[in-house]
Amino acid sequence: MIETPAALRPSVAHERAKSIMPSSESNTTPLPTFEVSNLSIWYGEKPAIQDVTINIPSKTITAIIGPSGCGKSTFLRCLNRMHELIPRTRIEGKVLFQGQDLYSPGSDPTVVRRRIGMVFQKSNPFPTMSIAENVVIGLKLNGVRNRTLLDERLENSLRMAALWDEVKDDLRKPGMSLSGGQQQRLCIARAIAVEPEVLLMDEPASALDPIATMKVEELIHELSAKYTIVIVTHNMQQASRVSDRTAFFYVGKLIEFGETTEIFAAPKEKKTEDYITGRFG
Ligand SMILES: Nc1ncnc2c1ncn2[C@@H]1O[C@H](COP(=O)(O)OP(=O)(O)OP(=O)(O)O)[C@@H](O)[C@H]1O
Ligand SMILES: [Mg+2]
After folding, report:
1. pLDDT band at 35 (very low <50, low <70, confident <90, very high)
2. Distance 86 CA to ligand 1 centre (A)
3. Is pLDDT of 120 > 80?
């Protein structure tokens, strides 16, 4: 993996600051958020991911790119055990989350999904719930009843999702009454309300106009100070704008992974170059 240079973006600065903390690996390198080794995933008999090995460093933004059907969403879902909700999936290999085996018998998928949040391509507010209820539902399901705490989290999450100013007077209105871009930020607020450590985002801006897209991208950049973010995108400009590192997948395999500036300026693999220059995909 290519090392990040000293030209420091905030997320990288944070990573370096953290590197003075002791970790079980070494005194200088923080534990990666994910250490994925030899991961393969099947739907029934059909392989979707084959032998993928990748380390995702803490508090960085990683973009996953590649043509439709190459396994990006499948890979993302296995990082918080979401793929298990799909019948007949099988997984081989290892996923360590902060050094711990995500798939060990003692690991609880519900806890995993709270610590590793997910935002989907289509914004999906709960249709019968208000804006406020949509944000705090995860907390309530986790047993939080304290009104003050719920109100605090509601406001903080909406502020972090850059939506507070637009909705603060309409918190009791249905979540569905918001525009598409606002609904997507509402879903981001919902994902961060439970204070996860990681945000997985599957094409979070693909249905949005350029202004809403820009807001979501700014938000992603701000969130990276606090979270490790893995974002799937079909938009090459977006990958190069928002991410520290980029992983290129092709037919279920990880072809190349490295610093985003390197991947886009000087890819090592011909397949990567063909894809990012629009020769296929
Ligand atoms: N629920 C499912 N059941 C069976 N096969 C699936 C399922 N989801 C995905 N697949 C298959 O796994 C492979 C990878 O799909 P995946 O959705 O991960 O690709 P993707 O890279 O996210 O594509 P896209 O860019 O179109 O979203 C595809 O061949 C797809 O048909
Ligand atoms: Mg997908």
Report:
1. very high
2. 11
3. yes
